[in-house]
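Methods — Computational structure assignment.
A single polypeptide chain was analysed. Its primary sequence is given first, followed by the predicted tertiary structure written as structure tokens.
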Amino acid sequence: MEKNWVKLFVTTNPVQAEITKQMLDEHGLLAVIMNKQDSSYRFGQIELYVHESEEATARGLMSEIENNDSEQ
């Protein structure tokens, strides 16, 4: 991975990682998924990275989504 990327999110759920990535993409933020899960047994983690210059915006969007989910 190139320099200046920060780990924003870690999960074991590939669908959750993809949904989060697409939400960030819809807001104009470039996000990269690194799937570190074993392909046979599905253990391990999936990491989502964003460029450090977009980290604050990405965290703000994620926080906003979490707050909306908890209100419902």
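Note: Residues 12 and 21 are 14 Å apart (CA to CA).
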